[in-house]
Amino acid sequence: MNAMHLDSGLDSAPPLEPLAPYRQRNRALVALVCLLAACSSDNNRQPTSPTSAVVNSFSVAANDNNALSAIGTLDVANADSARVVYWSGSDAKGSTPYVTDVSSGRLVVLGLRPETEYRLYAEAVGGGASTTSDTVTFTTGALPTFLQSVNLSSPTPASFGYIFTAIWDGSTAYATAFDSTGRVAWYRAFPGGLPAEEIKQQANGDITAVLTTSHGGEPVPGRAVEVAPDGSLVRTFTAPDASYIDGHEFWLLFNNGAYDGALMLAYTQRHLDLSAHGGPSDTLVTGHQLVRQDANGDQHVVFDAWDHFQLTDNVEPTSGQLDFDHPNAISIAPDGNYVMSWRNLDVITKIDATTGALIWTLASPFAARASDFTITGDPLNGFSAQHSVRALDNGNILVFDNGTKHAPSVSRAVEYRLDAGAHTAAMVFQFRHSPSIYTSFTGSAQRFANGNTMIGYTFGSPTLVATEVTPAGAVVYEGTLVSGGSQTPYRFTKIRSLYRYEAP
What we know:
- This protein has 2 domains: about 55-140, Immunoglobulins (Immunoglobulin-like, Sandwich), CATH 2.60.40; about 145-495, 6 Propeller (Neuraminidase), CATH 2.120.10.30.
- The strands form 8 sheets. Strands 3, 4, 6, 7 and 8 form a 5-stranded antiparallel β-sheet that branches. Strands 9-34-33-32-31 form a 5-stranded antiparallel β-sheet, with no helix packed on it. Strands 17, 18, 19, 20 and 21 form a 5-stranded mixed β-sheet that branches.
- The termini are far apart.
- By secondary structure, the protein is mainly beta.
- Helix content is about 5%, strand content about 45%.
- It has one helix spanning about 20-45; strands at about 55-60, 70-75, 80-85, 95, 105-110, 115-125, 130, 135-140, 150-155, 160-170, 170-180, 185-190, 195-200, 205-210, 220-225, 235, 245-255, 260-270, 285-295, 300-305, 320-325, 325-330, 340, 345-350, 360-365, 375, 385-390, 395-400, 410-420, 425-430, 445, 455, 465-470, 475-480, 495.
- The protein is globular and about 80 Å long.
């Protein structure tokens, strides 16, 4: 029988030659499908284009600044960006943000758990395709002993991001971020015997901390430091000669994203005769300056309290060194000028950023100074010993009102809408904790993009509490700091990311 005929036993069966072209076309289609599948499989493993990213090696090591972090070293070619993907056990995979500058080959992983084994690989993107490294293992170290018993206790998780504060064990200061469950997720230790007062995530994603034992008036040294998210030191700042740095507020300044200097509080001291006011004839008195440091390090005084206020403007009791003005907050207003809080005067001022002139004064009815605004709609008749004053995007002023002069003393967050034409400051929001909490010093208030407010009850409070409330005053989160530290936090603030700044 002819091999090209059907094997049917019938000599009259038609030949199969007419089917040959179809078989050849089918074989060609199958070959093409197999080739495409092979190419697709190869792309998942390693790009074949000469312009695609190629990972030559990837390794991971400990970060000496933070046991909850790891440093990845990546050798890669043709990469536009890269990131690290990581997981532990059966956990869902997490990842770092993509880094577009891969020239250093350094990838930082943050927010890990202590003493935990992780599996990690690098993913690089280039030439329109991505490729991954081999998977490596890495085990994190133990938290510092002091931090092992620290947490932010809450029955419900925080709504987003991390809650940021500073704590102190008597010899080492810790800038600390707690995740939504209240565990320590990030920290940077500052040994050397100086506590950290104000800490902040700045607009470039770096962290600043003001390290000093001063409460705002003592003649003691101090400094501000800027560290990158991995904890490495970027810059150190000190006060101008013959003055001392104040720890209540510190800002980095930027111009079109480029570093443009810093804004800080400093203070100087004078020997004054206070006998006319019932005091000693030789008293060392502290007055404060708002200092701008340029990108090249030059410093100049923008505003000097000695030139604008009087000793008799002091209406709040002080302890120890006489600090008659006690500024404790700087906020950069939407128009670029500065809104400042003066605790011991019960006054908030707006200052021209260029000339240092007083633009307006919002004085509480408890203050000795005159006010450009009359406070309306406030059942507590204004604020006293206030902290954490913030100029909001809508022009309103948000205040942590410590409330020393309320009867009884009670702390709250309060917001005023300023009307320059009518010269009124109308209360549009307040939150008073139930049961009431009184924070005699420090404290914070922070507004989020969704309208919620984070309120930090700190020094002098029976408990150290961070509370998030809605515009209607409903509590959506409350965390209590559990810490054996010898100094209580200055503020509680929220950040969205450990890697970069994102508006909360």
